């Protein structure tokens, strides 16, 4: 199957690109018809506020006193799940970046311990990796999102900054989850970021030689830097990285106001969502991405993206290679693509999860409502597709965090504010409900 894909990709590049259509609707399209019954996603974890665990009660008291822990400050934004291949309990990872002070650590796993306001989390890989708050660049300064690959490794994106003070270079840190050992680290060179402007928030690691046949060595990682409005490509084998910044990575001012459940905030952000089209679909492979503050869904072929030479021309480089897939008329945050090519995204309005088959035009008929819940799906900031080793089925995992309430200052810690939800991908697509 893999060989077939490669042959098709090389022999018929034009045919493959023609699988994308360029839509130019004259007005916004979403007046989606809702199914008669609302489709619910089951909740796996929920919090009123994030419940941090510490190595000792003394440490908790000390960081509460010195301001390194303020229970009202942390906001979870990402979720990823690791199923050990030989069985054993799933591990659920969440991130709580250091947007400001008062976040004791920014990468954690969820424990079975139930506390007053939700499940307790514990630092990953250890408390010491986080406790210097930017003083030790061999640790982790501020993790925004992670990506667990098919080889059992977690790709961790550390922005290196706290409130735009660049304590350390942004870095990609990779852990082997079977052993919890550091297996790779790449510190971005100064040419790949803009200190005081960049904020790296998302990573997608494309494993081009996946198991069982591949060796997991041939990897390109894509990094989203929405504040400097760029995508960074990291060539792991070549130990090189380059920035892509042009009119397609820019926000659209018309989508700078984000309204969720009647509350609005302003954010003029570039690229946020990243996912590559899967191997084995017989298509020329693309990175599908969008800016948070934009309605456009975009694609760029991986063979162009992965060639550093193509990007030497700066703002005007390779512009004709970008494919404008369509417009949604509203923002959505993180997205994820299943192995059969269904792209999922959580729309701000309606507050719902939509699915789209990437081989069809991105339009009203093909972008379908899959789950609707105006309470539990407020701002889906983290989204992953995870394959269960036991039966090979895929699951969609989401983290919603009511970001609008944080910006508006209306967050109420007596309510549930943060949720992790899950559904079997096939069950969700077939409308069977989630089990
Ligand atoms: C990269 O792009 C350059 C410029 O278009 C081209 O000459 C070169 O062959 C490409 N390299 C690969 C590996 O495709
Ligand atoms: C739990 O939430 C309540 C209500 O907001 C708050 O007063 C309390 O401090 C929280 N407890 C912890 C351990 O975070």
TrEMBL record:
<dbReference type="InterPro" id="IPR017996">
    <property type="entry name" value="MRJP/yellow-related"/>
</dbReference>
<keyword id="KW-0964">Secreted</keyword>
<feature type="signal peptide">
    <location>
        <begin position="1"/>
        <end position="18"/>
    </location>
</feature>
<keyword id="KW-0325">Glycoprotein</keyword>
<protein>
    <submittedName>
        <fullName>Protein yellow</fullName>
    </submittedName>
</protein>
<keyword id="KW-0732">Signal</keyword>
<dbReference type="InterPro" id="IPR011042">
    <property type="entry name" value="6-blade_b-propeller_TolB-like"/>
</dbReference>
<dbReference type="Pfam" id="PF03022">
    <property type="entry name" value="MRJP"/>
</dbReference>
<comment type="similarity">
    <text>Belongs to the major royal jelly protein family.</text>
</comment>
<dbReference type="GO" id="GO:0005576">
    <property type="term" value="C:extracellular region"/>
</dbReference>
């Amino acid at each position: 199957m893999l060989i077939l894909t490669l042959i098709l990709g090389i022999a018929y590049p034009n045919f493959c690109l023609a699988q994308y259509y360029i839509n130019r609707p004259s007005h916004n399209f979403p007046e989606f018809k809702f199914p008669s019954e609302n489709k619910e996603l089951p909740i796996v974890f929920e919090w009123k506020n994030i419940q941090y665990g510490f190595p000792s009660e003394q440490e908790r008291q000390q960081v509460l006193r010195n301001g390194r822990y303020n229970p009202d400050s942390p906001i979870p934004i990402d979720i990823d799940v690791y199923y050990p291949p030989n069985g054993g309990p799933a591990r659920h990872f969440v991130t709580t970046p250091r947007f400001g002070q008062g976040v004791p650590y920014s990468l954690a796993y969820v424990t079975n311990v139930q506390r007053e306001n939700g499940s307790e989390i514990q630092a990953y890989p250890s408390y010491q990796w986080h406790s210097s708050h930017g003083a030790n660049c061999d640790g982790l300064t501020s993790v925004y999102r992670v990506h667990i690959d098919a080889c059992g490794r977690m790709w961790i994106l550390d922005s290196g900054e706290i409130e735009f003070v660049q304590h350390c270079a942004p870095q990609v840190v990779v852990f082997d989850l079977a052993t919890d050992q550091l297996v790779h680290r790449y510190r971005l060179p100064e040419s790949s970021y803009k200190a005081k402007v960049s904020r790296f928030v998302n990573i997608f690691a494309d494993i081009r030689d996946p198991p069982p046949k591949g060796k997991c060595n041939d990897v390109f990682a894509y990094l989203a830097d929405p504040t400097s409005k760029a995508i960074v490509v990291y060539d792991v084998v070549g130990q090189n990285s380059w920035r892509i910044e042009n009119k397609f990575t820019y926000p659209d001012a018309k989508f700078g106001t984000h309204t969720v459940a009647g509350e609005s905030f302003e954010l003029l952000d570039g690229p946020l969502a990243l996912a590559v089209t899967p191997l084995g679909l017989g298509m020329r492979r693309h990175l599908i991405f969008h800016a948070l503050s934009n309605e456009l869904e975009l694609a760029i072929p991986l063979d162009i993206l992965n060639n550093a030479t193509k990007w030497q021309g700066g703002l005007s480089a390779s512009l004709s290679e970008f494919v404008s897939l369509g417009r949604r008329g509203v923002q959505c945050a993180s997205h994820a693509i299943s192995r059969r090519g269904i792209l999922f995204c959580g729309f701000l309005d309606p507050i719902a999860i939509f699915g789209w088959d990437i081989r069809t035009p991105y339009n009203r008929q093909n972008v379908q409502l899959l789950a609707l819940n105006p309470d539990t799906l407020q701002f889906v900031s983290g989204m992953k597709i995870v394959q269960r080793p036991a039966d090979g089925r895929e699951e969609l995992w989401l983290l919603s965090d009511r970001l609008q309430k944080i910006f508006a200052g209306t967050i109420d810690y007596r309510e549930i504010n943060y949720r992790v939800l899950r559904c079997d991908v096939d069950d969700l697509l077939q409308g069977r409900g989630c089990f």
